[in-house]
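Teaching soon. Got one?

===
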Amino acid sequence: MKKFLSLSLTFLMLQSAFCFALAPKNIFAQVQETLTNQLVVEMVKNKLSEEIIVAKIKSSKNSFDTSASSLQELKRNGVTDTVILAMVQKASGMEVSLANQTSSSNLIGTAIPDGTEIKIITTEEISGQKVVEGDPLTLKVSEDVIINGRIVVAKGTIVKGTVSSAKKKGFMGKGGDLSIRIESTETVDGQKLKLRAAKSGKGGDNMGSTVALTVLFGPLGLLRRGKEAKIKEGTILSAFTDETKSIMTN
């Protein structure tokens, strides 16, 4: 009898130790879980609340597909706009915040194609006499960018740029030189949008040659005549998106 009790006790201790050894691995696996579109759909079908799903998105790693077609598929599967927006924010590296979310039924996924033109306006005069290479520049979007009837980049949004080269006018009638680089702006849902454009000008000599302005991926035309390379305040420039971006729009 004593032998039997001893064997039973030993078996129970080994069983407990085995379960204890397995528990941390299960917990670790849960912590390391990577959320996908399908897992979010499953949470929705299991009738978890928006708050719980968003909290899970906020605290977990993800491998979300936020292309326009995938966002529309999420919508068809009953995923709310609040959850979709949280997924887009998380996938783009933004902080997910309930305060910044909306449950508006008008939200929809929209794709901004690479190469989309954006009109930009200078907010101050840029002179080769006053700026140096590396100086930051602040410009603005001059008109709404609209795709499929929805605004994806709003008029007045800040555009960031940099002076890529600047040379003052010289002696003997030598003109100045000025180049700027257009770098990025923001979409209506707060995502950074990379832009490509470079604008360069050559100051004219005493013979009255024109200042030719060009963009890296297309001509901008003529700006002005003169010795000093300048870009006037209120000058309209063209830039182009340097990536495809999926966003949420009203």
In short: The domain at 117-249 is CATH 2.40.128 (Lipocalin). Confidence is low (pLDDT under 50) at residues 23-31, 99-105, 199-226. The chain has two domains: 34-105, 117-249. The longest strand covers residues 192-202.
